[in-house]
Amino acid sequence: MPRSWFAVPLFILLAALVGCGGNEHSPKPTTKSKRAGASKAPRMPGAHRAPRERVPVLMYHAIDRAPPGTPLPELWVSREEFSAQVDALAAKGYHGVSLQQVWNAWHNGGLLPTRPIVLSFDDGYESHVTNALPILRAKRWPGVLNLEVATLHEELRPRDVRTLHDAGWEVDAHTMTHPDLTTVGEHELSYEVAESRRWIRRKFRVPVSFFCYPAGRHDARVVAAVRRAGYLGATTTEPGTAAPDQMPFELPRVRINAGDGVPGVQRALAEAGA
């Protein structure tokens, strides 16, 4: 991620300790969300059943110009570059969808539009609200926020996450503090994987059906922890196009970096087989 590690805020640690243990109930959808879900599919362009369709998942981080001296400046895609990429995707006939829509089409008889594509955003940055949101909203596309809980009150505020969710974005988990999960002990692994899901569900009343491995780092032990935590699947940093016949806890993505521009996105999609 494009920033250095910092200690978890005290309020997050307290919330985690309070929430450990006990029975957990799934967030109940509001009447408004039920209506939105029921009416969305028939309006999708070219809505069709897609139990075997491959879907590219783009991987973004910050949507802004990199501040001078920032680490990993390649993870900062400017608003102008992102806007041009979204316009080019739309011109090619792509339509943005969420991971949950893809999963429902693969496994639950749901529908997808023509040329579905997922745009995912890792960590949680103010620019997801100020820059990415208005660009995607103009196309009526959702985004997928892979939220690292420690970014709250540093990069994003809770109201920003609610703004994204209210605009149709999916909110998924990206751990509490973004460690390399392959190097942590069992207690910390459970905290980072399971508690991040519980915390986001309690705070924002959203399903949190998918997990995103920090820096893509995972092994069999980490995958088992993600499965135990109740996620439907997980995304990696491995290149490729997500498909229903793949291991659902090792879904590939298409990385987009600063300077890729429109040609870079087109090239990356072609290399991924999209």
What does this structure look like?
The chain is of the alpha/beta class and 274 residues long. It has one domain (51-269): Glycoside hydrolase/deacetylase (TIM Barrel). It is 39% helix and 17% strand. It contains nine helices and twelve strands. The protein has helices at residues 10-19, 31-43, 79-91, 99-107, 126-139, 158-166, 186-204, 220-228, 261-271; strands at 48-49, 57-60, 62-63, 76-77, 95-97, 111-112, 116-123, 144-147, 170-173, 210-212, 233-239, 251-255. The strands form three sheets. Strands 2, 5, 7, 8, 9, 10, 11 and 12 form an eight-stranded parallel beta sheet that branches. Strands 1-6 form a two-stranded antiparallel sheet. The protein has a two-stranded parallel sheet with strand order 3-4. Helix 6 links the parallel strand 8 and strand 9 (170-173). Helix 3 (79-91) packs parallel to helix 5, helix 5 runs parallel beside helix 6 (158-166) and helix 7 (186-204) packs parallel to helix 8 (220-228). It starts with 9 loop residues before the first helix and ends with a helix.
